[in-house]
């Protein structure tokens, strides 16, 4: 299990009640599960199911879509950033 820094933006920050925290997990999926357990059902809805479509996760500034998606492994000291879906027009 890796100890990581987690930065949360916009809706994630509002639901969690903080902009930064830390967590321990082996991969991104495990980290999201741990954060959902810590911050409750509203946070879990942000990261699971249909409401989770389009949210952005960066590990050390790199989008996990360019890595191994939710199975991206984490290492001690990594920084994970969570952003809600981005829309524009």
Structural class: alpha+beta
Instruction: Tell me the major beta sheet.
Output: 5 strands, mixed
CATH class: Alpha Beta
Arithmetic mean pLDDT: 91
CATH fold-level assignment: Ubiquitin-like (UB roll)
**What characteristic shape results from the CA principal axes?**
globular
CATH-level-2 architecture: Roll
CATH homologous superfamily assignment:
Beta-grasp domain
Q: Gap between N and C termini, in Å?
A: 40 Å
- Give unreliable regions as ranges: none
* Percent of residues in β-strands: 25-35%
What is the tally of beta strands? 5
Radius of gyration: 12 Å
Helical region count? 3
Structure overview:
With 89 residues, the protein is of the alpha+beta class. It has one domain (2-83): Ubiquitin-like (UB roll) (Roll), CATH 3.10.20. It is 28% helix and 27% strand. The protein contains 3 helices and 5 strands, in the order βαβααβββ. The radius of gyration is 12 Å and the shape is globular. The N and C termini lie far apart (40 Å).
